[in-house]
Amino acid sequence: MPCLTKSSRLFLLAVLLNVVGFFSQHSNAQTLSLQEQVRRVEAALVQERIALQHDKPFYLAGEQLWFNVYLSGRDTAGLSKVVYVEVRDANGKEVTSQAHLVTDNSATGDVALPKNLASGYYQVKAYTAWMKNFSQGQQFSKKILIMNAKDWRKEKSPVLTPSHTVLSQGEQLASVEEKDTLIEGNALAAAAKERLIVKGQQEGSLLVQVLGMGTQPAFLLAEAGGKVFYSSPLAVTDDLRQLEVPLSEVRDKQVRFLLLDNQGKVLAEERAEIHAPQLIRAEVFTAKEQYQPREKVTVKVRLTSGQAGVGNAQLSVAVYADPQRSWGDVKSEHHQDEALWQAIEAGENKRQHLKETEVFPLPRASGKGTRLQEAQSPITNPAVKISASVNQELQRLEAVQFLEEAYEVKRYEKLYQPIPLHMDKTFKLDQYIDFASTESAIQEVTSNLRLSKQKGKFQLRILYTDQFTKYFFKEEPLYLVDGVMVKDIDEILQLDPKDLESIQLAWKTETLSRNNLDQLAWNGIFLVNTKGAAHRERLVKRGFQALFAHLDVPYTLQEVKQESSGQETIPDLRVSLGWFPGLKTDKDGWATFEFTTSDDLDTFRVAIMGVAEQGEMVQAHKFFQVTAPPATAK
């Protein structure tokens, strides 16, 4: 036998190692059971659900974007207490980022859109710190159109695009049978080998067509409302699968389908919108379908579950012109969540970000809070194509701004709204005549407390009461003025009683614990709310600490009434008639709000979003028209 040279032996060894490695790799290919597949999918899905509503479909640079964020999940007690809202341009560059406190599963806020924004589609994102452990595709993300008047003035004619959803290259709409009107969705890219097409519904089950399977075995799973449903392993010849997904589990109206091979690799993904009756039904009522300009409109909303009303629901309402009944909103294109696919295949369950189920009332020791300031640098964005109808509406928005500036009309003013705390009793002072002093107001209006003067100094004690116990706290409570901590009652007694709006008390253990104030509130809370934000700003300048100062402070809108001079009437061409972020239903499920129509003769939409006490998301809308008054006979 001839002797092998050293180089030959090394070459042969390398070949043998490669062959061994090849067989080792393929012999160790792990075939996963259906139970393991389900476990991996569940581990890769975030259990918190988040939604955001904003006040109108699109904006001009320099306007205010008002929003409400809603958080839900199966374990409402363990939901995050802080949500983050970002606006990014088409290149992913951050325009602004905010952090807001979640109260009763919702948070409200506003974004001042910089005047230097270039025209384009921007992305509004909402998420919690816990959601950062999962794929970004599970966070809330929506495109909105922001236009800068300086940009589109340069274009003599706008570039036209179809009014339907613009799909990315290679995408196609899924085919849906005419008799099955419950489902709509997008198929995966046509270039993909494996595809899923949602065909319809039959006897409470969803029919899903599987294309391009070949001979490999696979599993079809569906995720709805945080739960995972699955069918038996797909046979080689299967192309139409029946997968049972109870409609009661489809909380956010969307079902995600995943096709996995027997090694945990995702082959295809599909999402379908299920237009099914919700567990909680929202209805919107107006007195009539048509109104005249500058007429008061009263809107009633009712949430029901079965025959009973749903109380304690948090709602927000936007009222805006919608002549096309599809005005301006940019539907998100359907994308594969490849980060989710990778997490499922890896089977890992690492969590780098903690769930913020508690909130620090004060900035952390480092002094660095979570509040981020708006970007000051100029923003650039790729050229944007808009439809003729959207371009026309944008020009109307600018015309409204021009007229209001010319007539010096201030349509809305921002009013400071303290971060809401849970309180046990509220005393409104606007129901009483004027008081000589704040001391007399406290003495005459409030109960459950004792205000006394010892050695020339005032002291206050809150009375603790429950079904079996009654006693005064031994120490003074936490004193707050518009969410700012003051050292003693003397700071409050110096306030002008005419500036007081309400006095609130908290003493119950469960109430105090819900406010995340820990030892600060061991002896109760005495909160004074004033009219406006002047006192808050003054106290902060003096060095007093505001609660949750590291979070963004919510504001609320208050419409300023228009005044006419003689026969002159200031034009009112508003296309956005109202934004109501803080509506709550009563015990019977009813909520009522009012607004006044403008001079704009158009079709308007009342868009409602919210979350019920049980954690169910609700949505509803109603249209009405503003028409010219009938001609007066001469």
What strand line-up does the widest sheet have? Answer: 2-8-7-4-5
Structural class: alpha+beta
Number of strands: 35
| Major β-sheet annotation | 5 strands, mixed
Give the overall form: globular
Radius of gyration: 30 Å
Low-confidence stretches: 6-28, 156-192, 327-332, 365-379
The number of distinct helices, counting runs of at least 4 residues, comes to 9
Describe this structure in words.
31% of the residues are buried. With 634 residues, the protein is of the alpha+beta class. The longest helix has 22 residues, at 6-27. It has nine helices and 35 strands. Helix content is 15%, strand content 35%. A five-stranded mixed sheet has the order 2-8-7-4-5.
Task: Compose a concise summary of this entry.
With 634 residues, the protein is of the alpha+beta class. The chain contains 9 helices and 35 strands. The strands form 9 sheets. The protein has a 5-stranded mixed sheet. It has a 5-stranded antiparallel sheet with strand order 9-16-15-12-13, covered by helices on one side. A 5-stranded mixed sheet has the order 18-35-34-21-32, with no helix packed on it.
List keywords for this structure.
single chain, 634 residues, alpha+beta, five-stranded mixed beta sheet, five-stranded antiparallel beta sheet, 9 helices, 35 strands, 35% strand, globular
Secondary structure layout plus pairing:
Elements: H1 6-27, H2 34-44, E1 48-54, E2 58-60, E3 64-73, E4 82-88, E5 94-101, E6 106-112, E7 120-127, E8 140-147, H3 149-152, E9 183-186, E10 195-202, E11 205-211, E12 218-224, E13 227-230, E14 240-244, E15 254-261, E16 266-274, E17 281-286, E18 290-291, E19 296-305, E20 308-309, E21 314-321, H4 338-346, H5 388-406, E22 412-416, E23 425-428, H6 438-445, E24 449-454, E25 457-465, E26 470-472, E27 478-481, E28 484-486, H7 489-493, E29 500-506, H8 509-514, E30 525-530, H9 534-541, E31 555-559, E32 576-584, E33 590-596, E34 603-611, E35 617-626
Parallel strand pairs: 2-8, 18-35, 27-30
Antiparallel strand pairs: 1-3, 3-6, 4-5, 4-7, 7-8, 9-16, 10-11, 11-14, 12-13, 12-15, 15-16, 17-19, 19-20, 19-33, 21-32, 21-34, 22-31, 23-29, 24-25, 25-26, 27-28, 29-30, 34-35
